[in-house]
Every structure is written in structure tokens, then in C-alpha cells.
Amino acid sequence: MAAVDVIVNNLVALWRIPAVRHHFHWIFLLISGVGSVLKELELVPQTYFSSSRNALNVYFVKVSWGWTLLLLTPFLLLSNSAFSRNVSFLGRRLLSLAVATAVWYVCTETFFYIEDVTGSCFETDNLTVVNLEFTSKVACRRAGFHWSGHDISGHSFILAYSSLFIMEETAPMASLKTASLSALPRMVLNLLYVALNLIMIMWVWMFACTSVYFHEPLHKLLGTLCALMGWYLTYRVWYLKRLSPGLPPPCLPKEE
């Protein structure tokens, strides 16, 4: 496992660079803006990732929140229990998962609602003949027709939000390198940390693919801004307050 230790040390060193942690969120606005321009100018050639049926989109992005929770939940339990086994403390830290899930659910459901109330059902993909029989996206598509409305990019939202969520909750790894953990928990923690960083890289990559191949610029921007707002209002505002899940140790307010 020496190779894993080296990878973990390099990743921890990377995230301890102030410019990386403090400005990571800006990368999503940059990618979304540049990607949208490239898409509108049709400067990016079609590739495997320009199809929504590519394997990463089907098996990972479409269930991205599930993958994020699957890896982050055991990491959060192991990492935080190394600081304190107090039930109240661990409960508050687990509450951050519930809060993030609530943010994800409310935002995605809102996106679906907006697309429904602003859209219409068209009989052909050239959007010329309106079918007034179907008034929801689900019913319209189930009938084999095409629905067109304000489709705020759920992919832009969830990929950016998941990445920022992982960044915040894996921060304690910088201190856990010197913690006195037995061999098995240490190995599991290291493997989870590497996996979370790998999946974050995948989320950023698929966010870039979304930016250059799919959605309208405004829809991608709105999805990205919702992700940044959800992250900022929790980790940069609410979690600094006493009545909150709190920041992951040792991410004290003064370090942010």
C-alpha cells in the first residue's frame, strides 16, 4: 500500500495549497463560460462524450449523487470519528450529508418544475407543431413527442455541487495523516480518499463535457450558479454558525 500512501500525500499537499482550495469554485464558472462559447461557435468536434449515452454519463453522472454519498458517507464517519467519538459531534457531521441531499433534491425538483411550467409539447423535433393534449414533459415524451422548456442544466448543478461538497468534507485528511489509526482503518480511509478525488476529477471532466456539448449557455450558467450558491450558503455562511452541522475538523472558520 506504499503507492497509495504516496498518492494520498500528493493529493493532500495539492489541496493544502491555498490557491487551489480557495479558488476551486471559480473553475466551474470558467469552464461553463468557455465551454458555452466553444459550443455556440461549434469549435469542438464531436467525440464519444458528445453522446449522452456514453458510459460515464449513463453509469456515473445520471446517478452521481448516489456515487458521491456511497463514497463520502464511510469517509465522513471514519475521518470524523478519529477526531471525536462523541455521538452529538458525529451526528452533527452526518447531518451535513442530509443538508446536502436536501439542497440537491430541492434544486433538481425546482429545475424539473420550471421546465414543466415553461414548456410545450411538440410533435416533431423541429418544434413547429404544438400538441396541446400533453402538458407535462413526462407525458409528452412518453407519447413519443418532444418537450421544449427552460431546461436548467441539472448536470452542471450536480457535478459542480458534488465536487465542492467532496472538497469540503475531505479536508480533514490533512490532519489525519499524523493521526494514530490502526492499519485497517488507515487503509480504508486512504482508499476512500483516493476514490473521492478520482470521482471528483470525473465530475469536473463531465462538467466540461456538458459545457461544450449540451444545453444553452444561460441554462448551464443558472445550474452552475445554483451549485455555487448551495455550497456557499452552507459552508461559507450557515456552517460557521453555532446552530449548524459545523465545518469538518480542522477546517476552522479562520482557515477559510
UniProtKB/TrEMBL annotation:
One GO cellular component term, please give it: endoplasmic reticulum membrane
Annotated keywords = Endoplasmic reticulum, Hydrolase, Lipid metabolism, Membrane, Transmembrane, Transmembrane helix
Q: What residues form the membrane-spanning segments?
A: 64-83, 95-114, 191-214, 221-239
Which InterPro entries does the record associate with it? FIT, FITM1/2
Q: Name one Pfam family in it.
A: FIT
What is a GO molecular function of this protein?
A: coenzyme A diphosphatase activity
GO BP terms: namely:
lipid droplet organization; lipid storage; phospholipid biosynthetic process
By its UniProt entry, which PANTHER family does this protein fall under?
Answer: ACYL-COENZYME A DIPHOSPHATASE FITM2 (PTHR23129)
Could you tell me what this protein is called? Answer: Fat storage inducing transmembrane protein 2
Q: Which organism is it from?
A: Acanthochromis polyacanthus (spiny chromis)
Query: Mind giving the lineage of the organism this protein is from?
Result: Eukaryota, Metazoa, Chordata, Craniata, Vertebrata
